[in-house]
Structures are given as C-alpha cells and as structure tokens.
C-alpha cells in the first residue's frame, strides 16, 4: 500500500500550497482531500496575476446559456463551466476576475470560479446625482416599463475591496452612473444628450483616478469624482472603431481597430477576418491629443468583444514576460455571403493571435478553437481568473 498523502503535516502542506503559481493547479490542490483543503487558504494572496481566460461565444450546436466555455492561455485548454447563475442574463462586462451580469432591472457581480454573487442597487431606486450634469427630473429613477439595458460595466478593483466602484453605461437617460458595494442607489454622473458636441460616447474607462469617456473621433470627457468636475478635451482622431483599455496605471490607452476580410486561398468560399489595429496614448501636456505608440513597456494588451480591452503587466504574470509589448486578439473564419441565394453561414471558427506592437510580427497562439454562433461573437470577453 502506498503512502497516505492526507497525513502530511499541515505545516508542510501550507509550504507546498505557497509554491503553487497556477490558479487551476491551486484549485486542484485544495480538491485532493479535506486536510489539504484545510491547510491552504481559500483566498491565496501569493498567486501571481493569471493569464486571462477568453470567454468564448456560444457553440454552434445549441443555445446553452448556463454552460460557458473559457479558453485558458496558460494551459491551452478549454474549460466548460456549469453556471446556472448566468442563465437569461446579459454579460455586460468582465473586470478583476468578475463578470458583470444584467437581467431585467438588476445588475449583479458574479465570480465564475467561486460562484460568489454580489447584488447591486436596483435601477428603479431614485438615484443620487454627482452634481456635474444637469438633471431635469428630481425623481429620475428608471421606470419598470423602460427598455433598459447596460451597454458596458467595469470595476475599479476587486469587489471584495471596500474602495471598489462599479461604473455602468446604460441605454436610458442615465448615460453614466456608479455605485459602491453596499449602496442602496446609484449615483448618476452624466445624463443624456448633454455633450458639447451632441454625440453619445463610444466607450469609457477608469484610469489613474479619472473616468474617461471617449466620443466619436477621439474627443474626451474627463471626470474627477473626488472633487466632482468634468473637463471637455477636443482631441481629434479620425477613427470609427475605438475602445479604451482597462487596467492602465498611467495615461489612458486607446485601441483603434477594424476587420480586414479576404478570401481564403483554397477558394472554398471561406472568408478570413483579421484585426487591423493601432494603439494610442492620451497626452494632456499642452494641447490634448492621442499619440500613436508602438511601445507600452512590459504591458500586454488583450482585445475582446463589446469594446472590451484589458492591459496586464507581463512582469507580474504567472508566466513572466509573456507577451510584453504585444496585443492579443482573435481571428475568425466564416463562409462567404451568397448573394444569389441570400445565404451566409451562421458559424465562425475562432483563432487567437499575438501581435508585437514594435515590429508588427504576429504569432499564432492557437489552432481552430471550434465553431461558434457568429452573431454572438461580440460577447468574447477576457476574464482574469481569481478566487477573490
């Protein structure tokens, strides 16, 4: 009979657990037996930042909205997670290891690893106002009959941190709002149609203590939430598809992107769709402007769907220096539109690539990850897996 590994001293098990750097391996370690679980912390602060998982679109073989697939870059594996908590909900964001879910008139936070859920204030509650945007209705709660949804949501830190703020961009006259965990109502930052250029904004991000909202052609509104104020910056950037990068600890970064479609060489009706991108850094020294950059230092950028982009320092990752000064993005293949028969495949095949920002070289990270519902492709979101 072999040794009984469950009888290892707790002190030794604690040392071993502290040497594990992969979150997936740490979960497996705690699942071995009860003594191993008791000897290891449920909130392991020693784990480095994990390479993100890509939440994949729904599979082509059926609409199953409570089982989701995640591709793990570090292990090159696809995990299928049974998540009944997200059934019927729209995933409107991914931030600091948590998914932001919206269903009906309620938004909540959900950790797909621990299955923990945190409720946020209902939108039907009368909000408070930050006082930097004109409000024409003192009772500006969202009515239950309004066609309401959240376009995008982000967190400033883990929601287990007492300083965490949750920001949302909504479809109603609350253009921008935020709350803290435990608040009874939302605080509205900006109301509808009060922009000096009369244009809705494209994206927003929190960076270096400021909330940035970007408008068509690169115009920016900066919000100071500590001393409530806002500043309009008439930057010019003639790009249609742009998104701000979350997780930046210096001046804001922006990715301008578009898809280039070309026929596959095999002449089989397949169209390859590749991302074409440029990265810009915001400069407010003198005249505010977006400056094209090809060097983001040790950072690696991840571009997902729904204007979701993430920056991580490769120096702090579980695989040090992985992807430094690069952008990770997807490539898709789909059948070509047949105008004669008014037909186009509902599927797309997904691949991941890594492009260097300084010299433009591209590395294929994966083979074919499978066939997915093409109309759900925009739901690709990057998740940095965490137990807290």
Give a written overview of the molecule.
The protein is mainly beta and 388 residues long. The protein is 6% helix and 39% strand. Strand 24 (347-356) and strand 25 (362-364) form a beta hairpin. The strands form five sheets. Strands 17, 18, 19, 20, 21, 22, 23, 24, 25 and 26 form a ten-stranded mixed sheet that branches. It has a five-stranded mixed sheet with strand order 8-12-11-10-9, with no helix packed on it. A four-stranded antiparallel sheet has the order 3-2-1-27, with no helix packed on it. The chain has a domain at 1-47. The protein has helices at 10-19, 23-31, 34-39, and strands at 53-55, 67-72, 77-82, 90-95, 98-103, 106-110, 117-119, 128-129, 150-155, 165-170, 174-180, 187-191, 203-207, 210-214, 220-224, 229-233, 242-244, 253-263, 270-283, 289-292, 299-303, 309-313, 326-335, 347-356, 362-364, 371-373, 381-383. The longest helix is centred in the first third of the chain and has 10 residues, at 10-19. Residues 193-198 have low confidence and may be disordered. This is F-box family protein. InterPro entries: F-box-like_dom_sf, F-box_BR-signaling, KIB1-4_b-propeller. Pfam families: Beta-prop_KIB1-4 (PF03478). Residues 70-317 form the KIB1-4 beta-propeller domain.
N to C succession of SSEs: HHHEEEEEEEEEEEEEEEEEEEEEEEEEEE
- Please give the largest β-sheet: 10 strands, mixed
| Alpha-carbon distance between the two ends | 39 Å
Radius of gyration computed on alpha carbons: 22 Å
| Total count of helical runs of at least 4 residues | 3
Low-confidence stretches: 193-198
What structural category arises from helix and sheet content?
mainly beta
Residue share in helix: under 10%
**Average predicted local confidence, pLDDT:** 83
Strand content: 35-45%
Looking at the structure, what is the overall shape? globular
The beta-strand count equals 27
């Amino acid at each position: 009979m072999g040794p009984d590994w469950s009888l290892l001293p707790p002190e030794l098990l604690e040392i071993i657990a502290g040497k594990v750097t992969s979150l997936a391996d740490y979960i497996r370690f705690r699942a071995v037996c009860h003594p191993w679980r008791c000897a290891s912390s449920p909130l392991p602060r020693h784990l480095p930042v994990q390479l993100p998982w890509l939440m994949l679109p729904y599979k082509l073989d059926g609409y199953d909205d409570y089982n989701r697939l995640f591709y793990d870059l570090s292990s090159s594996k696809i995990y299928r997670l049974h998540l009944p908590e997200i059934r019927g909900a729209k995933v409107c964001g991914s931030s600091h290891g948590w998914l932001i879910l919206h269903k009906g008139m309620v938004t909540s936070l959900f950790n797909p690893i621990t299955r923990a859920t945190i409720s946020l204030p209902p939108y039907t509650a009368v909000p408070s106002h930050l006082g930097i945007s004109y409000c024409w209705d003192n009772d500006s709660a969202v009515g239950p009959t309004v066609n309401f949804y959240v376009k995008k949501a982000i967190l400033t830190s883990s929601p287990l941190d007492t300083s965490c703020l949750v920001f949302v961009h909504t479809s109603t006259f609350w253009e921008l709002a935020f709350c803290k965990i435990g608040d009874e109502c939302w605080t509205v930052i900006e109301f509808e149609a009060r922009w000096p250029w009369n244009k809705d904004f494209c994206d927003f991000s929190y960076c270096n203590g400021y909330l940035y909202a970007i408008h068509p052609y690169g115009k920016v509104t900066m919000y100071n939430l500590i001393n409530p104020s806002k500043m309009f910056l008439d930057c010019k950037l003639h790009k249609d598809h742009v998104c701000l990068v979350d997780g930046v600890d210096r001046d804001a970064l922006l990715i301008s992107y578009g898809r280039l479609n070309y026929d596959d060489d095999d002449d089989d009706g397949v169209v390859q769709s590749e991302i074409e991108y440029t990265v810009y850094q915001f400069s407010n020294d003198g005249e505010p402007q977006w400056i094209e950059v090809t060097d983001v230092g040790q950072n690696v950028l991840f571009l997902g769907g729904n204007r979701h982009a993430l920056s991580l320092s490769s120096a702090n990752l579980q695989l040090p220096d992985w992807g430094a000064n690069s952008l990770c993005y997807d490539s898709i293949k789909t059948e070509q539109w047949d105008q004669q028969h008014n037909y186009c495949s509902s599927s797309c095949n997904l691949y991941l690539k890594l492009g260097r920002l300084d010299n433009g070289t591209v590395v294929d990270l994966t083979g074919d990850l499978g066939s997915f519902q093409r109309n759900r492709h925009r739901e690709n979101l990057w998740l940095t897996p965490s137990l807290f």
